Amino acid sequence: MECPSGTIYIDQPSALAIDLEDVLAAGAGTYAARIAWRGREAGDGQEEYLVRMWRTGPVSDTTLAELESDED
Questions:
Q1: pLDDT tens digit string along 5-52?
Q2: What values do phi and psi take at 37, rounded to 5?
Q3: Got the DSSP string for 39-62?
Q4: Cut 0.85: pTM above it
Q5: Integer Cα distance of 20 and 29 in angstroms
């Protein structure tokens, strides 16, 4: 996943968005993510999620060009 701003938000329909701005300490770049959950099967509304992200490289030139063209 490319994250050119270095900022990420997790949103869900049943609650407020979670701002993870400080989590991406490596800043802008391309990230891999692994997401795990537990508690969904019980159906009691108690779910837990684990989001692991790691930087795999810089933002691609294609994405940077698209962002620059959007500024015009």
A1: 777 767 776 767 666 656 677 778 888 889 898 887 777 878 888 888
A2: -140, 160
A3: STTT-SS--EEEEEEEEEEPPPHH
A4: no
A5: 15
65's enclosing H/E stretch is: helix 61-70
Q: Please name which of 20, 3, 11 lies closest in space to residue 55, comparing C-alpha atoms.
A: 3
**Which candidate, 56, 60, 36, places its Cα nearest to that of 48?**
36
**Overall number of domains in the chain:** 1
Query: Which residues contact residue 54 at a Cβ distance below 8 angstroms, ignoring those fewer than 6 apart?
Result: 31, 32
Q: What residues make up the domain containing 51? A: 2-70
**Phi (first) and psi of residue 21, to 5 degrees:** -55, -45
Instruction: Indicate the helix (H) or strand (E) that contains 9.
Output: strand 9-12
